[in-house]
Design a protein that fits this description.
The protein is an alpha+beta fold. The protein has 2 helices and 10 strands. The chain has a 4-stranded antiparallel sheet with strand order 3-10-9-8, with helices on one face. It has a 4-stranded antiparallel sheet with strand order 4-5-6-7, with no helix packed on it. β6 and β7 (239-247) form a beta hairpin. The longest helix is centred in the N-terminal third of the chain and has 157 residues, at 10-166.
């Protein structure tokens, strides 16, 4: 019977060795990689810790600066508050003092005004007393003046009545009965007082050529002082009228437009190349029929 040879154990042992060696190498590589990573992480941790310390230091420094600034700000605010309180108290004192002074001035002004009013009232009372006394004297004087005026008025009325009694009415050169005729200044004044007609006095010289009297143009042509006669030419309402050989105190009559009563020229004085008299016109303009 043949005997089988036993297998060689070395190949199995070599495979195991190689396997262990490979595992060892792998473990060594893993450990080296792990060590490298750990070292890298440690360096990163160290760097982060250093950066954090720097940041913390920066934050601490900033916090210290900020706290210092806050303390300074609080101190300034407290100082400002103290100053404001002091100023407010000072302003209040000044306002109180000013108000007291203003009240004193106002009271003094009121007292002065009252004194001035009392003085003015006393002066007015004195003036009224003087005026009253003067008024009594003036009343006496005025009574005398009134009495004198009444006497003058009575005398004037008497003179006017006397002058009116001397007035007379004559027929004019147109054959129309005239109103009252004045032959002198006193009688003419009496006629003006009656107020029934308009009266315009004139004093015309031959050298004057034309003279306008009461809206009528008059021109003296000729005078005869010895016989008291005159020639006169007049222009009224653009109409030329010639009056010849008219005598002293004779009403020279003519019509004005729109009037039913004639206007009259009365000459009271005839001198050499001169006449003196008046023009009489109606006050109410009435249409002639």
């Amino acid at each position: 019977m043949e005997t089988k040879p036993s297998p060689n154990p070395f190949p199995k042992a070599s495979l195991l060795v190689w396997t262990c060696a490979a595992v060892f190498v792998a473990l060594a590589s893993a450990n080296a990689l792990l060590f490298f990573r750990v070292s890298s992480l440690d360096a990163q941790i160290t760097q982060l810790a250093s950066e954090n310390r720097n940041q913390l230091e920066t934050i601490r420094q900033q916090s210290l600066v900020l706290n210092s600034q806050l303390r300074s700000t609080v101190k300034d605010l407290d100082s400002q508050l103290t100053d404001t309180r002091s100023k407010a108290a000072s302003d209040a004192d000044r306002a109180r003092i000013n108000a007291q002074r203003h009240a004193e001035k106002l009271m003094q002004s009121l007292a002065d005004d009252q004194r001035l009013q009392q003085q003015a009232l006393a002066e007015q009372i004195g003036a009224v007393r003087q005026d009253s006394q003067a008024g009594i004297a003036n009343t006496t004087e005025l009574t005398g003046q009134i009495r004198s005026v009444r006497e003058d008025l009575a005398q004037t009325r008497s003179t006017l009545q006397s002058a009116l009694s001397d007035l007379h009415s004559v027929r004019g050169d147109l054959g129309i009965q005239s109103g009252l005729i004045a032959t002198n200044a006193q009688q003419l004044a009496a006629l003006k007082q009656l107020g029934e007609r308009n009266y315009f006095e004139f004093d015309i010289r031959k050298s004057q050529r034309t003279v306008k009297v009461g809206g009528v143009v008059l021109e003296l042509k000729k005078t005869d002082a010895r016989r008291n006669k005159f020639n006169l030419e007049l222009i009224a309402d653009d109409k030329r009228i010639e009056k010849k050989d008219k005598t002293l105190n004779e009403p020279v009559q003519f019509y004005l437009s729109g009037s039913r009563q004639p206007a009259e020229i009365v000459v009271n004085q005839v001198a050499k190349d001169r006449i003196v008299g008046y023009l009489s016109t109606p006050k109410l303009i009435q249409a002639r029929r």
